Amino acid sequence: QVQLVESGGGLVQAGGSLRLSCAASGRTVSEYVMGWFRQAPGKEREFIAGMRWSGSSTYYADSKRGRFTISRDNAKNTAYLQMNSLKPDDTAVYYCAAKTGTIISTTQDRYGYWGQGTQVTVSS
């Protein structure tokens, strides 16, 4: 129903910034929620931020609010995660995900569509 392809990960020094992109294709329904998650080896997958594809509603994990910003470009069918003031403990595989409906969820099980993940490594 929808395919997600990520880009923008890589190696960055502490204090730097990255912008992750998630290109969506194959949509067949009008209402989606986009979420960003991350997962470090041996740890649970962690919610970062979510937004409705339509409208202005967003929701951020408390620990990410102020440093990370979720956004979209509807014309390009692309969602973004802008990450600023990066820290070594931000190192993880970052995933974009999508779910149907309009309710922003922090629970990964609610999201049925996932990107392949992109590695972000923050050096000291």
Description:
The chain is mainly beta. The chain is 0% helix and 52% strand. The chain contains no helices and eleven strands. It has strands at 3-7, 10-13, 18-25, 32-39, 46-52, 58-60, 68-73, 78-83, 92-100, 113-114, 118-123. Strands 2, 4, 5, 6, 9, 10 and 11 form a seven-stranded mixed beta sheet that branches. The chain is globular and about 45 Å long. The relative contact order is 0.33. The mean pLDDT is 93.
Describe this protein with a few key phrases.
11 strands, 124 residues, mainly beta, four-stranded antiparallel β-sheet, 0% helix, globular
User: What is the molecular shape?
Assistant: globular
Helix/strand structural class = mainly beta
Number of strands: 11
Write down the Rg. Answer: 14 Å
Helix content: under 10%
Q: Give the termini distance in whole angstroms.
A: 40 Å
The largest β sheet comes out as: 7 strands, mixed
Mean pLDDT: 93
Total number of helices: 0
Uncertain segments: none
Taken in chain order, the helices and strands follow as EEEEEEEEEEE
How much of the sequence lies in strands comes to over 45%
